[in-house]
Amino acid sequence: METLHTIAIRKSVRSFTSEPISEDVLQKLIAAGSAAPVGMGAHQTVKITVIQNDALIEQIRSMIEKAADRFNFNPFYTPNVLVVVSCLDDPSSKGRDISNATCVVENMHLAATDLGLGSVILWGCIKVMAELPEIHQLLEIPEDFIPLAGLSVGHTTEAIDKAKPDKKFLEVNVIR
């Protein structure tokens, strides 16, 4: 699949089947995330946590549901794989940490599309997760790191191979 075609058909998917993701495909997703640009080449300030354990995903979901005081809250949409990107909690990074985390999840989001999988970028539930040290412990996130972005990935019954012609949602001002 060509890059521009992948970008054109990329969409957020919130409905996943129970079909597991193969190890080969998982490694391709991880490689895509690992290839993301990282500000100032500080790769040691970014950690990717990949969770394939349904019971652990459910435990984390339940903890977030309780912390957010929401009933029947399914912020991950029951994925086959949950990815959490954490960065060094360094106030001097001036937003570089958020940029790094978003580059990682966008690379993985596009790779998922290219591999025929559905995915959705996660923000709000990750923000709640960042405030729960017990989740950091469960996911073995270092104490000086903070979860900043996430991605739910899985096989889906939704059609993801239809290009959207001239997909433009943002206002663009070209100055010549």
Beta-strand content estimate = 15-25%
The end-to-end distance, rounded to whole angstroms, is: 32 Å
Query: How much helicity do the residues have?
Result: 25-40%
- For the report, how would you describe the main beta sheet? 4 strands, antiparallel
The CATH homologous superfamily is termed NADH Oxidase
Number of helices: 6
Instruction: Count up the domains.
Output: 1
Q: Class by helix and strand content?
A: alpha+beta
**Annotation, overall tally of beta strands:** 4
Strand numbers in spatial order across the main sheet: 1-2-4-3
Tertiary shape:
globular
Name the average pLDDT: 94
Reading the helices and strands in chain order gives HHEHEHEHHE
From the 3D coordinates, which CATH architecture would you assign?
Answer: 3-Layer(aba) Sandwich
**CATH class descriptor name:** Alpha Beta
Radius of gyration from the alpha-carbon trace, in angstroms: 17 Å
Question: What do we call the CATH topology?
Answer: NADH Oxidase
List segments where confidence is low: pLDDT < 50 over at least 5 consecutive residues.
none
